[in-house]
Amino acid sequence: MRIHCPHCGERSLDEFSYLGDAVVRPDPASPNAQEAFYTYGYERSNVAGPMQELWYHAAGCHAWLVVTRDTRTHEILEVKSAHEVALARQKVAGTAQ
Amino acid sequence: MTQSAQTSRLNNRGLIDRSQLLDFTFDGVPYTGYAGDTLASALLANGVRLVGRSFKYHRPRGILTAGSEEPNALVELRSGARREPNTRATVAELFGGLEAKSQNRFPSLSLDLLAINGLVSPFLSAGFYYKTFMWPAAFWEKLYEPMIRRAAGLGRAAPEQDPDSYDKATAYCDVLVVGSGPSGLMAALSAARAGARVILADESFAFGGRLLSDARTVDGKSGADWVASVIAELKSFPGVKLMSRTTVFGAYDTGTFGAVERVADHVAIPAAGVPRQRLWRIVAKHSVIAQGAGERPIVFGNNDRPGVMLASAVRTYINRFGVAPGGTAVVFSNNDEAASTIQDLVSAGVTVAGLVDTRTSLPPAIKSLARKHGIRVFEGAVVADALGGSRVTGARIIASYGAPQTVACDLIAVSGGFNPNLQVTTHQGSRPQWRDDLAAFVPGALPKGMAVSGSAKGTYGLASCLKEGAQVGAAAAAAGGFVATAAAIPTADDEPAEVSAFWHVDSSKHKAFVDQQNDVTAADVRLAEREGFQSVEHLKRYTTLGMATDQGKTSNINGLAMLAALTGKTIPATGVTAARPPYTPVALGALAGEHRDKHFKPTRLTPSHDWAKERGAVFIETGLWLRAQYFPKPGETDWLTTVCREVSTVRNSVGVCDVSTLGKIEIHGTDAGKFLDRVYINMMSTLGVGKARYGMMLREDGIAMDDGTAARFADDHYFITTTTANAIKVLQHLEFCRQWHWPDLDVQIVPVSDQWAQYSVAGPRARDLLAKIVDAPFDISNAAFPYMAVAELTVLGGIKARLYRLSFSGEMAYEIGVPARHGDLLMRTLMSKGEEFGVTPYGTEALGVMRIEKGHVAGPELNGTTTCADLGLGKMASTKKDFVGRILSQRPGLADPNRPRVVGFKPVDKSARLRGGAHFIAKDAEPVAKNDLGFMTSVAFSPSLGHWVGLGFLAGAESRMGEILRAVDPVRNSDILVEVVSPVFYDGEGARLRV
Amino acid sequence: MSELANDIKKASLEASERTGLTVTHVAARRGARASLDDVARAAFGVSLPSSPKAVEARGALIVWTGPDQWLIVQKDETGRDHYAELAKTFNGLASLVDVTDSRTIFRIAASRPSETLLRNMGIDFHENSFQPGDVAITHVSHLGVIVWRLPDGTAYDFACARTYSREFADWLRKASA
Ligand SMILES: [Zn+2]
To answer: Can you give the pLDDT at residue B2?
Structure first.
């Protein structure tokens, strides 16, 4: 498999390591934090189809990536910088507040 | 003097090089062949038909095919450490001095005592493993398995280490063409002319595929001459890579292919520096699969006798190798290719005693060809059985009319039609599709970027293959952005290729083999169906059909067609089993490549390595590092003496240990403190500049991940250390936190593990020693530089350094870091300047002893199941902030105060030895699992105390202080009494640290 | 490291270990990228590359090593402290770490890769694919490496972790044969 790192270009699978479902760390200050962290830690999605996953370009630029992959075919539909996705997420959250 | 003189070699025929006579032996008998032969063709040239014994029944077997699909002619090549079993004689390239042996026979090939298996064959029928060996269980190990291993099986692996080297390589291209038959060559040519980077790979040592095997003309030239002209043109393009002897064995995601190149399989011993084989990863933007089609046999009685051969193989041996595979032949067929077979046999001087065709009405062209050569034609007929034992002596023919007849012959050329070689197209999960008109499966939906061309797609005519190849090659190049037009199509005829589906002769008297390599018969398939194994996947597993090293290339379709007929389903409704990589077997050596022995994994060397080696250190592998374990002095004969001396010297004077293997990470930025607060359980933002603090990190699930120290050099500059083992993991974790959790923080993370040579200088004289190397005006006094102070300074006259007043040993101690290139000098200087104090270097062993004496937790305690409370560090966790792992560490299960905690243990009998891994049991309890109270994690002989000390996890630890327990180690047969004590055995008040 | 230099000489490669360099890791402070570029342009006359490229300017080679991160490779000069000068130049805009000793840098003086090098690299190292000024952070045979092709196309530099440098020299010996 080949993954197109948005920073380094297309590289072979062996340069990357996999974490799993691209879920967001819950708010530790929320009243149901225990429950939310439990879900975050243990109840990860594992869909058959396109899924957003976190990958790390371990042997390359050390960037974390949000990879949209079809788990049935291994087709990679999109790769984004996790840092930028996270910044955009915070911006949206900031606007919402 | 050779045994025989290639009596079956044809004059003036074949693509072998008659100027290069090669000697070889088979089962010790010397023979000759020519360059360009395979072992199989050379054996046939010498009239050798019997080449092996079958897997289960030890039946005599010969050569069925001329290619990599061969199920029978498996031999051992070479001898000694280079002996390689299960090599297909049909693809083994002949070389001078080749030693080949038949396998799976006892005591000799012609007299095989185990052929008696054939007589007890009801015992070995389908599912025999499942039925026979259920009971009694003990019989399996003692009787059945050894017996079967003796009786059934393939070749023997060499017990010695493989002396040859293997290599791994990567190649990139715009267009990968797999297979160099007519279609593959045209595809490669069209893509190359467009300017694409092209790789053309073929498993044979010669390019050309069927063009070398069939007596056909292209552009008025012989097939071989036309191939030579195309190869010459391809060579003229700088972007074209021609890879013969290269099997593309697997297709993986995103245009990645696995291939193995047999670089030196065709020589006795590879030249110096040349690998035997090379494993390629080929990354192709587009690929053209043109692996041709494989002929399938028809299943009939004794169809495994030496002398039964695929018709296409017969033509290959005649045309490519100039060998007559028999003297008198019967052709048994269901398709029009029979015409070519007859022509080639006749032209080679082989008598054709009959054409047996399952079709009731043959095309006129074939009939007139037969008439012309005086060949008897049996229409609507079958060869029911081959006659003869270790070679064919005749064919028993049954026609729809008249009585069975016997025709004498020594060769039965059989053809049941062709199966496109589509395995590689299915490796990523796509399913082939059935085509009734071809009576064959063709590739279904293809992975992105892949195209199939020619016979591999079910396009059989030569002219059609050439044309399709040109078009598909041009399209692949065009898809890659090149301006491409299909190469002009050379002239050639499309041969007729009508086929009428026919799989299996019902009227056979003898065993009829579906899978010859695994000895699966037609009766086995019927039995499986009768017993309810009616899915093709069940059939495969119950009978082992298609599970041999040939993955059923000559058997799968016949087997499933028979199953379909038995169940009354169509073939497409019955389905096919999945083909998986590798297409043909790949040597494990090739998969390992250079990663074996010393290069199995890379070795990391510390900055003091050369010095330690000179000093006679004993090294130990810790992860990828090679570290000094201890430094024996002359006269010290056992490690314990050395380690005790090293510990005592540190405790009484001073010692130096290379701790450069610690992970070292720079944390910068205005939010550095805030960031560290979130990843450590304790506060780091409150750490003063010029100070260090011990820290613990958790995983998000609340389990301890790693510990180390954080030093602060400026408001926006920290330097942290990790354990040696977790350096990479912690860096990845910190980057994850920075990039994904808290992207808005101003934090920069720079790994600097290799930048610093870092040494621990420990012991009551540590300061005295360091005072000799620090540059003025640095004040190293206890008042100016107290416990947990850090500073940047220079040493040895201007070398930039960092000094940390940290102690792992429990003594007054420092860690000093200098840029790694100065590490060797610093170590040598510390040793020479420390002579007056009796300085000792110490290794990982003494380091471990002292940390256990001090009750510091390390790897055995941070084992991925323990919380910081378990480790006795619960009070470190800040309650004033959030940090990774905080929430989930509060789960009831993890917060349970009765969880086993770290405590210390000492033996009641002071001379007793403690054992890591021993379990704690109450003094009067039975040593059984339900009475288990915990286990010992770390033990050491303490030279400071004069007895063994241990750390371990104990349930209800606080209430058990002072209690006497049993420490039971059933593995090493040890059961001793221990006392539960504080984990800090040495200097409980920590007074020695602060002096 | 003299043993290493000897090893390389024995292998009669066009490869050599580069010494006498100062290597500084520069990481942009958050939100300071634009100002950092202004300062870089003033100091070196070029912008800091935003993609895997190496640019040469005023005696320094600026090598992209990740998003908002670079290595600045400078030849040592008597009486100059490159790191201190850079720290002053980029003060407040970037985090600087002296990583001179973190890696060993090997140079293969060649205008294009040999067949062996081509097939031993995991990335596409063909001279048309990996062009002058290109940078890749990758691994070869389990060893992490930063490789760049000099902007003038005359050589390839391989920077590998210092503690692996003997292992890497082994690889280089094989790959450059
Ligand atoms: Zn990357």
So the answer is: 44
CB–CB of C122 and A60 under 8 A?
no
B127 phi-psi bin (left φ>0, alpha ψ -120 to 50, beta other): left
Question: How many domains are there within chain B?
Answer: 6
Both B429 and B400 in one domain: the answer is: no
Separation of A8 CA from ligand 1 center, angstroms? 4
Residue pLDDT, tens place only, B317-344: 999 999 999 999 999 999 999 999 999 9
Which CATH number belongs to the domain containing residue C68 in this structure?
3.30.70.1520
For residue B892, the chain A residue with the least C-alpha distance is A34
Give CA separation, B922 vs B964, B966, B974, in Å. Answer: 8, 6, 15
Q: What is the CA radius of gyration of chain A?
A: 15
**Do residues B785 and B677 touch, judged by C-beta distance below 8 A?**
no
Domain count, chain C: 2
> Which residues are within 8 A (CB) of B456 and not within 5 positions of it... i.e. 6 or more apart?
B179, B183, B289, B290, B291, B292, B293, B420, B421, B422, B425, B443
**In the β-sheet with C143-149, what is the strand arrangement from edge to edge?**
C15-18, C103-108, C156-161, C143-149, C135-140
**Rounded alpha-carbon distances, angstroms, from residue B285 to B71, B179, B196, B479:** 34, 17, 10, 9
C13 and C32 in a common domain: no
Residues C143 and C168 in one domain: yes
Name chain A's partners: 3 or more CB pairs within 8 A.
B, C
Interchain CB distance below 8 Å, A9 and C52: yes
CATH number for the region A2-96 comes to: 3.30.2270.10
**B256, B735, B891 member nearest A64 (Cβ):** B735
Could you list the pLDDT tens digit for every one of the 177 residues in chain C? Answer: 445 555 555 444 568 899 999 999 999 999 999 999 999 999 999 999 999 999 999 999 999 999 999 999 999 999 999 999 999 999 999 999 999 999 999 999 999 999 999 999 999 999 999 999 999 999 998 999 999 999 999 999 999 999 999 999 988 888 877
pTM reported for the whole predicted model: 0.93
Residue B457 is given by DSSP the state G
Binary contact (B429, A73; C-beta < 8 A): yes
Say yes or no: C167 and C145 in one domain: yes
Residue A61 in contact with partner chain C when CB distance is under 8 A = yes
In a domain, residue B618? The reply is no
Put simply, whether A70 touches C (Cβ < 8 Å) is no
One-letter amino acid of B921:
I
| Residue C24 near residue C98, CB atoms below 8 Å | yes
Domains of chain A, residue spans: 2-96
Domain that holds residue C116: 2-18+102-175
Residue of C51, C67, C138 lying closest to A15 (CB–CB)? C138
- For testing contact with chain A, the best of B253, B285, B428, B681 (most A CBs within 10 A): B253
Domain assignment present for B773: yes
Show which of C98, C127, C152 is a domain's final residue.
C98
CB contact under 8 A, C97 and B752: yes
For residue B154, give both structure tokens. Answer: 């393939």
CB-CB under 8 Å, C163 with B754: yes
CATH of the domain at C143: 3.30.1360.120
Classify residue B380: in a domain, yes or no: yes
User: Residue B344 is part of which domain span?
Assistant: 297-416
pLDDT, averaged per 10 consecutive residues of chain B (995 residues), comes to 74 95 97 97 97 88 96 94 93 97 78 65 64 56 59 73 94 98 98 98 97 95 97 97 98 96 95 94 98 97 97 98 98 96 97 97 95 96 96 95 93 97 93 94 95 96 96 97 91 88 94 94 94 91 90 93 94 87 92 86 95 98 95 95 98 98 98 98 98 98 97 98 96 98 98 98 98 97 98 97 97 98 98 98 98 96 96 95 97 92 97 97 95 97 96 95 97 95 96 93
Q: Chain C: give the shortest CA distance to residue A48, in Å.
A: 31
The residue count of chain A comes to: 97
Q: Are the beta carbons of A83 and B743 separated by less than 8 Å?
A: yes
Q: Looking at B372, B387, B416, which one is the last position of a domain?
A: B416
Express each pLDDT in B142-179 by its tens digit: 666 566 555 555 678 888 999 999 999 999 999 999 99
